[in-house]
Amino acid sequence: MNRRAAIRRLLFIAGGTLLLPACYRQSGQATIELSNLEIDEEQENLLAELVETIIPSSDTSGGKELLLHLFVLKMVDDCHSPEDQKAFTAGLASFSTYVREQTGEDFMKLGVDKRVAFLASLQETENEEVKRFYAMTKRRTIQGYTNSKYVMTDLKKYELVPGRYNGYFKMA
């Protein structure tokens, strides 16, 4: 073995040991830097599952695949008032306990049908924290989806029923 090959392998090993901890994110912190919200990793994962339930993946990309939960967090962090931010974090914290009280299971462990049924039942709930949190999350999720690069570039444009007017159409 020559010296250059040994140094090259040593550098690969050193680089791998520096990058390996970044692959296993167990820090407990959110993925993105937030200035006004305090969100941990578990709450971010819960929000990702909630966004995936609102916009599920099928033949098109879903909410988790488009990272809409990060969009929701960033929009609430940057664009909402401090009162809305406090209501969002309080609602996110009480959402998991509310789900556990109503269904007996965590939201992450529920099946897709039960998740959809639970979210539909949130319209009639008396828990204002959860209702306000869900309304903000749903609004920002839909906004993020409709403004995403995927929707703007890849989805086909819908043309209304009568179609375009073509004044130069030749009759046979």
UniProtKB/TrEMBL annotation:
Superkingdom of origin organism: Bacteria
Protein name: Gluconate 2-dehydrogenase subunit 3 family protein
